[in-house]
Amino acid sequence: MLRLSNYLFILLHLHRATTRTTNAFNYTPANQIRRVGVKSSIRRVDTYALPFVFQRKQQKQRIETRALSMDAGLSEVFVNAWSSYNVALEEQPLLTKSITAGVILGAADLAGQALERALANNGENAQTPSSPAVVDLARVGRFAIFGLVLQAPWNHFYYQILDSALPPTVDPFTSTTGIKVLIDQFIQAPIFTIIIFYFLGLLEGKTMEMVYDQLDKDYKDTMLANWKLWVPATAVNIAFCPPVLRVLFLNCVFFFWSIFLSLKLNNSDGDDDGVAVAIEGVVKEQEQQQLMTENK
Questions:
Q1: CB-side exposure of 73: number of CA atoms within 13 Å?
Q2: How many CA atoms lie within 13 A of 106 on its CB side?
Q3: For residue range 120-161, what is the model confidence (pLDDT) as tens digits?
């Protein structure tokens, strides 16, 4: 009996051990297979999905980079310059307008001198070499000082007075706009033109009598030319430009007007044919030299 009970006890333990081993064998591989399947699926998702994510991010970054590079360059320079100018115009309006006018009118005189040389060289004999490009810096400085000291401050305060007396209207085409144009061109412009003649003439070293003689010869023609340019320009300026930008618009138009003034006021003969007379003198001198050469 003892041996039989021991034998049964041994069989019972063997059965339990076999069951545990079987369960362990059946459970572990299945669990491992499930885990391996989940890991492989995750790896497959990572393998196929992540490149799409990275590609989209890279494409987006490339598009943003291209957009930034296109916005950069000249357009960005102009935008930044315009923003800086508006900030300066708000903080120091008179100084900003004066410096801008000085630069623009100095450049206008440079253009006027270049135009004078071009007219002179075109009128000379083809066999005569063109005159060297000599820039009259003193003359450029006079026009720059004129813009800095007179033109910008005059118009800055003039438009403030005009707009306070006749406030701007929302509609550009009103009787107020017409009245302001008439005041500007038939009261302000004739007075300011006389001041320009005297200011630039005295800077050049002319006497009051010399300036008066030049006014007597050139004032009428200057005013006729002034009205041809400035009546429509002033109408656009008063009708469409905001008050803070009126002097800037004026300076841009004044660039071309200053070329005319430069040619008119720096004409040594006091009339519009000064360049032609100089050219005629050169031609006559060449003819005399040819006659002397033939006589020899």
A1: 7
A2: 15
A3: 888 655 445 555 678 999 999 999 999 999 999 999 999 999
Taking the C-alpha atoms of residue 238 and residue 213, their distance in angstroms, rounded to an integer, is 34
pLDDT in tens, 160-169: 999 999 999 9
CB 251 within 8 A of CB 152: yes
Residue 204 token pair: 């050049």
Closest CA to 102 of 261, 251, 229: 251
Which amino acid makes up residue 186? F
If you count them, how many residues does the chain have?
296
What does the pLDDT look like over 109-128, one tens digit per residue? 999 999 888 888 886 554 45
pLDDT digit string (tens) for 3-40?
555 556 666 656 565 555 555 445 444 444 444 444 45
How many CB atoms neighbour CB 271 within 10 A?
Answer: 13
Is residue 120 within 8 A of residue 131, CB to CB? The reply is: yes
